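Final report, results section. Input specification for complex C-07:
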Amino acid sequence: MTQYPVRRDPRKMIAVASVSIIIIIAVYAAVTWWRPRFVVYTYGSFFDYGDEGAETVLGRVFAPFERQYGVDVDIVLLDVDANGIISKLVAEKSRPLADVVIGIDNILILQDAAKSVLEPYTSPMLSLVNETFVDLLDPEHYLTPFDFGLITLIYSTSSINTTTHPQLGNLTFADLADAEFASSLVTENPSYSSPGLSFLLSQIAVYEKLLHQDWTTWWDDVRDQINVQEGWDQAWEVWSGDPSRNLLVSYGTDPAYSAYYYGSPPDTAAAPFFYDNQHWAWMQVEGVGLVKNGPNPELGKAFIDYCLNATVQSEIALNQWVYPIRTDLSLPSVYQYAVNPNEVSLLNLLLNRTEISTNLNNWLDSWTATRIP
Amino acid sequence: MNARTILNYAILSFPFLLLIVFLVFPVFFVNALYLFTGPSFFETIMSPSIRFILQFTIGQAILSTLMAVLIGLPGAFLIARLRFRGKSLVRAMMIVPFVLPPIVVVVGFLEMFGSYGVIDSILMWIQGSSTSVFNLATGIPGIILAHTFYNIPLVILMVSASLERLNPEIEESAEILGASSRQRLRYITLPHVMPSLLASAVLTFMFCFMSFPIVLAFGQGRFITIEAQIWNAFRLFDYGEASSLTLMQIVITLSLAFTYVRLTKRENETGKTASMKTTSFNRYPLRERVAIAAYLSLIVVLVLGPIATIARASVYDPVAKVYTLEGFTNLFRLGGQGAFRYLVNSLFYAGLATVFAVILGILLALDMRSHHRFVPTFASSMILLPLGISSITVAYGLVLAIAVPTGLITNPWPIIIIAQTIIGLPFSARAIELAMSKIDPALLEQADSLGASRIQRFLFVELPLLAPGILVGAVFAFAMAIGEMSATLFIALPQNYTLAVAIYEYLGVRAYVEAGASAFFLVIVCVIAFLTIERISEGSTGGAL
Amino acid sequence: MVEVELRGLLREFDDGTTVGPIDLLVRDGELLTLLGPSGSGKTTTLRMVAGFIENVHGGLLFDGKDMITVAPRERNIGMVFQSIALFPNMTVFGNISFGPDMAGWSREDTVNRVKELAELLDIQHLLLRKTSEISGGEAQRVALARALATNPNLLLLDEPLSALDLQLRERLQKEIRRIQRKLSVTTIYVTHSQDEAFAISDRVAILNDGLVEQVGTPEELYDFPANDFVATFLGSGNIFSGRIVEVSGEHVTVSVNDNLFLIPTSGNMGSKLTFSVKPEDVVISDSYSEGEIVANVVSIIPQVGSFKVILDLNGIPIIALTYDEDLVKRLRSNGNKLVTFSFRKDSTIILSD
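Structure output:
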């Protein structure tokens, strides 16, 4: 009788499988069960450009805050940029998870969508911050300034320099439209990248306000030579991998980064634009904001205050590679190679805030139109 | 209506109910909310830049489809007719593009076809040039090539499966009747594979039509698809435009979906023939052997090239210029930057999504076999809907309509599983439906006459017979789910990130070996799964699509 | 076992055609065959009895109990399909034990039953094989064993032997007959082959266009076909159709294409009459005598133990059977193409219209 196969009831197998699946789900759910905590949304590379990596630095920087208020601070590093974070906040608007958001900049805050998810808050710590930054970022205090950077062109000195190309010392957009420079230039898509958008607004400011010309003509001139990448990561990739593409739209602190990691003098130099006998750059100010209707508003305000503490601010230079908003703190010595904010005029100031917020989408549409073959 | 009929209707309508709750409702929710807030629908779709985008989207999709079909068709013939060792491995490799997140393909393409890539370096060495002379990984050539890379396997799998179903006796009798090989191809073979060829072309077109990471990476901001423009609109909080574009996309893809359903319905009737006429390479005349070799080298460069560069990237650190296994050890490292949690997430989400996609797939297959008049057509188009709706719209809708009201926003992993289930569903449902159509109805009546209850009949007769189809569908659904990135990224909090998302993150911080090893791991998991399934289902995997 | 009664059983198809209404009584323990040309509704009738067809009108009684609303699995039937339909995912043992397993028999009972049936059908050696590893004839036996495993009251066989070669078919016919007798299970058998029907059945029902033409034992059907369809279908006779031109006592004279036949029956002058004569009742001779009818020989076909002679009588084909070898030899050698023929006494069968 044993020689004949016994009919196996698949119900047993299905039952076993179902039970194991349920157990796995239960274990996973238990392990990842959400405990109420203090949530901060920011972008993926936040404090991640230093020696130690984001996790260590963030642990160190926010441990005193956690001890002081007896909460778990969860810095949620979202793998999206600031626009993506705002999109997420908009979707979650009716029931926000985050209390605070870090990384919204002075262009993005001009969008109504960004303001719609934030709650204005004037931090008492603002007394330690230069008023210019508040005006540049957000006089309405939806955001509190956190750090700032200068968007400018950088180049690798190994392939070009001020000796071979003296124009680099006092660069104009007209120089850039020259075939040799145009086909060396890598920039980012302004629709997808904040340095790319800053560069577009710089160009618009120069053409519309300094030169009084139609800004789109420049993009028509460089249309077929310029290399537009999706974001800063990809653009940096092309710039560092292709010796013929040696001009990049990036941050004025990049020479300092280069000096810190690859020795000084750095092989990277910055070339701010030169008009009216002065150098110009676009200043990107990033802020920290209180999420509207967030679960812990008081804690959120305390957190924003804490962000202006020296404990936090002094870590920005070497981990974020932009300037801390507290100008009273000393900077690492490699910052001597960075573009000095005191030595450039700000292109931002040429375009007023309402002008940008009313025209931004049109400008982007026109820009897209210049790219269409 | 007795209890049995009610139960019957409940089972039939269950998958529809789920799809309506988790797909139609969220998408409708988002669109209805915003469709009337922005510029009107017609204003949006008539604007010159949107018209250009629409033209480009369709144009590049047509071009990519033509390329994929032209290059894929000879491959399908080779797979069906050529006898060689390692055939099942070659077939298994076909699943690789399904699982590779687009960002990985972009990197593979840059390393193979970009400036200073493999081909460029060879050309530079030949010409003695010190600067780049060749760059195909940009602009329209880059977009078309990457789409071709993605879809050649689709064409090969579907058409070769159909060729294998062609009874060799038909061709032989044509030969006896004096038809030349060209006439046989024209009058016998091509008409036979035409439905599956067209079906694969429609699917290819749909994938290219919906493409966006590839287009963003290679498009230079000049070339964008509707899908990319929807992301764009979302990023700029222009939900009105996003809704209008989504609506337009749904209309176009739904009509394509209907075409697809029509085309595939016709071929289902023929079963696989017992003996397939294959010939070994050495038996072909010299001229054809040269042609085959030339074709194979094209495939090697185009399809295997980027995959090989990914494999190399998993062990070669380009910054330190050393070979290292760090990428793979990182995969199993707990805590810190280690990828183990991503790996667990990937397997857990994709595994559960596969289980659900299979269960729903079985129910939908029952719907497609139902005798009610509209149910089968409705079911067939419902399963294709996920292929045609922008993933950002789905993700946004799921968050807005499901995650926020239910409070799942704090720990949104169930939402990720739902999104991945939806993405895998078209593949599982189709494979299972195909398997179901091959079951002799007499077997089921036989079980009835032997006193089996409905559930017994299902468990002891139908389920075992469906098993190969279920497994094939499961592998494809798993591959789609584990490779999914954009919807997951939008829904997830960092603790929910999967390997596909981690790859994106690693590339951002230039952790190349970690990214390469993660991508390679995804590939290996899916290839092994595919090989296992091929063995179990005896090589009928291609028919799954 | 069970007595099955079909009372006006009717199926309407979407295109308006119908099978039925069918009235039929299958007696307890008998083997009744549904015989008819393809498309005559045999299989549909069988499937209605099995319960696979929904929306059936009329009555279906098993021992007087109405089964119309009972699901197939609860009718306690065994069925063998034309396609055999062995479960490919199970062994032979698994196939045969399927019914008992579904019914929840004990393992011991199941194994004993399978062994018993395997012995009965001589397939003990196949039990552990896969269904792909057995021949067509073996598959047939397995299917039969599977259908019988749960002691069904009613066995339904749908052209089970149609795919087999002649020799195997004849052997299996005998076997089915033997087993059916032994188990005395009520059986309905569907076939389009007259030989098979006559070889195997207690009674045969002739179906045409969805209706039962005649039911009877093979002998009854052959000797007394009820109408010209049955007579033609069974090939049991030469059919003549004409008008009565003379009535005299116990005979009438019928004119068929101006040939006069004297038939022992009654009827009205001028009315139509159809009758048949079996080939063995047509007597032919090459010696001419007065008053006999002369016909042309068209061909002579040798058969086992006899010759089939096809005649032409002024355009009417007539088939005659003869055992007279000398006659055939003479007809072949002398080139004489004329013969006389007559019908044997009391051999004409009057057919209803």
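Chain C has a mean pLDDT of 85. Chain C has two domains: 4-233, 237-351. This concludes the modelling results for the funded period.
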